[in-house]
Protein backbone atom coordinates (compact mmCIF):
# COMPACT_ATOMS: atom_id res chain seq x y z
CA UNK A 1 0.00 0.00 0.00
CA UNK A 2 2.83 2.41 0.78
CA UNK A 3 4.24 1.88 -2.71
CA UNK A 4 0.85 2.87 -4.10
CA UNK A 5 0.89 5.96 -1.88
CA UNK A 6 4.37 6.92 -3.16
CA UNK A 7 3.18 6.55 -6.75
CA UNK A 8 0.08 8.67 -6.03
CA UNK A 9 2.16 11.37 -4.32
CA UNK A 10 4.46 11.54 -7.35
CA UNK A 11 1.54 12.05 -9.73
CA UNK A 12 -0.21 14.57 -7.49
CA UNK A 13 3.01 16.60 -7.32
CA UNK A 14 3.86 16.47 -11.04
CA UNK A 15 0.51 16.36 -12.86
CA UNK A 16 -2.74 18.28 -12.88
CA UNK A 17 -5.83 16.31 -11.85
CA UNK A 18 -8.40 16.39 -14.65
CA UNK A 19 -10.96 14.00 -13.19
CA UNK A 20 -11.57 10.67 -11.49
CA UNK A 21 -12.26 7.24 -12.89
CA UNK A 22 -15.63 5.87 -11.83
CA UNK A 23 -15.19 2.43 -10.33
CA UNK A 24 -13.85 0.81 -7.20
CA UNK A 25 -12.49 3.96 -5.56
CA UNK A 26 -14.81 6.73 -6.82
CA UNK A 27 -18.56 6.60 -7.43
CA UNK A 28 -20.50 8.22 -10.26
CA UNK A 29 -20.86 11.30 -8.07
CA UNK A 30 -17.05 11.61 -7.90
CA UNK A 31 -16.99 10.92 -4.17
CA UNK A 32 -14.72 8.32 -2.55
CA UNK A 33 -16.17 4.84 -2.05
CA UNK A 34 -15.81 2.78 1.15
CA UNK A 35 -13.04 0.82 -0.63
CA UNK A 36 -10.96 4.00 -0.98
CA UNK A 37 -11.57 4.83 2.68
CA UNK A 38 -10.24 1.37 3.63
CA UNK A 39 -7.15 1.82 1.44
CA UNK A 40 -6.47 5.23 2.95
CA UNK A 41 -6.76 3.73 6.46
CA UNK A 42 -4.28 0.97 5.52
CA UNK A 43 -1.86 3.56 4.16
CA UNK A 44 -2.15 5.59 7.38
CA UNK A 45 -1.43 2.48 9.48
CA UNK A 46 1.53 1.61 7.24
CA UNK A 47 3.01 5.11 7.57
CA UNK A 48 2.60 4.95 11.36
CA UNK A 49 4.27 1.51 11.46
CA UNK A 50 7.19 2.80 9.37
CA UNK A 51 7.58 5.78 11.71
CA UNK A 52 7.63 3.51 14.79
CA UNK A 53 10.13 1.16 13.13
CA UNK A 54 12.42 4.09 12.29
CA UNK A 55 12.21 5.38 15.88
CA UNK A 56 13.03 1.91 17.21
CA UNK A 57 16.04 1.59 14.88
CA UNK A 58 17.31 4.98 16.05
CA UNK A 59 16.93 3.95 19.69
CA UNK A 60 18.21 0.40 19.18
CA UNK A 61 20.26 0.16 15.98
CA UNK A 62 20.42 -3.35 14.50
CA UNK A 63 23.63 -5.35 14.61
CA UNK A 64 25.77 -5.81 11.52
CA UNK A 65 27.17 -8.90 9.83
CA UNK A 66 29.48 -9.40 6.90
CA UNK A 67 31.27 -12.25 5.22
CA UNK A 68 34.19 -12.33 2.82
CA UNK A 69 36.24 -15.23 1.50
CA UNK A 70 39.41 -13.52 2.75
CA UNK A 71 38.27 -12.74 6.32
CA UNK A 72 35.34 -15.06 6.90
CA UNK A 73 32.45 -13.96 9.10
CA UNK A 74 32.28 -10.86 11.24
CA UNK A 75 29.46 -9.74 13.56
CA UNK A 76 29.43 -6.41 15.40
CA UNK A 77 26.94 -4.25 17.27
CA UNK A 78 26.98 -0.68 18.48
CA UNK A 79 26.70 0.05 22.20
CA UNK A 80 23.13 1.29 21.59
CA UNK A 81 21.96 -1.74 19.61
CA UNK A 82 19.14 -3.90 20.87
CA UNK A 83 21.64 -6.77 21.01
CA UNK A 84 23.79 -4.94 23.57
CA UNK A 85 20.92 -3.29 25.42
CA UNK A 86 18.40 -6.06 25.91
CA UNK A 87 20.00 -8.96 27.77
CA UNK A 88 23.28 -9.82 29.43
CA UNK A 89 25.63 -12.17 27.57
CA UNK A 90 25.87 -14.48 30.58
CA UNK A 91 26.27 -18.18 29.76
CA UNK A 92 22.83 -19.78 29.68
CA UNK A 93 21.02 -16.53 28.87
CA UNK A 94 18.84 -16.13 25.80
CA UNK A 95 21.28 -13.57 24.43
CA UNK A 96 24.18 -15.98 24.87
CA UNK A 97 22.25 -18.72 23.06
CA UNK A 98 21.41 -16.37 20.17
CA UNK A 99 25.03 -15.26 20.00
CA UNK A 100 26.23 -18.88 19.76
CA UNK A 101 23.63 -19.70 17.09
CA UNK A 102 24.61 -16.60 15.11
CA UNK A 103 28.28 -17.56 15.22
CA UNK A 104 27.45 -21.09 14.05
CA UNK A 105 25.33 -19.69 11.23
CA UNK A 106 28.06 -17.33 10.07
CA UNK A 107 30.75 -20.05 9.90
SSE blueprint and pairings:
Blueprint: H1 2-14, H2 34-59, E1 64-68, E2 72-76, H3 82-86, H4 94-106
Antiparallel strand pairs: 1-2
Structure explained in plain terms:
The protein is mainly alpha-helical and 107 residues long. The chain has two domains: 1-59, no CATH class; 62-106, no CATH class. It contains four helices and two strands. Strands 1-2 form a two-stranded antiparallel ribbon. A hairpin with a 3-residue loop joins strand 1 (64-68) and strand 2 (72-76). The protein starts with a helix and ends with a helix. The model is unreliable at 85-89 (pLDDT under 50).
Summarize this entry quickly:
This is Cytochrome b5 domain containing 2. With 107 residues, the protein is mostly helical.
Q: What's the order of the H and E elements?
A: HHEEHH
Please, how many domains?
2
Distance between the termini: 38 Å
In total, how many beta strands? 2
* Largest sheet features: 2 strands, antiparallel
Gross morphology: elongated
Number of helices: 4
Widest sheet: strand ordering: 1-2
Helix content: 40-55%
- Helix and strand content put the structural class at mainly alpha
Assess the beta-strand content as a share of residues: 5-15%
Q: Uncertain segments of ≥5 residues (pLDDT<50)? A: 85-89
Q: Rg from C-alpha positions?
A: 23 Å
Protein name: Cytochrome b5 domain containing 2
Organism: Rhinopithecus roxellana (Golden snub-nosed monkey)
Please name the defining characteristics of this protein.
107 residues, mainly alpha, two-stranded antiparallel ribbon, 53% helix, 9% strand
Amino acid sequence: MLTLQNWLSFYEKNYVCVGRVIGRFYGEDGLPTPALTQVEAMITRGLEANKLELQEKQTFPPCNAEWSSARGSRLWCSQKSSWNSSLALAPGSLKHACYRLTLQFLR
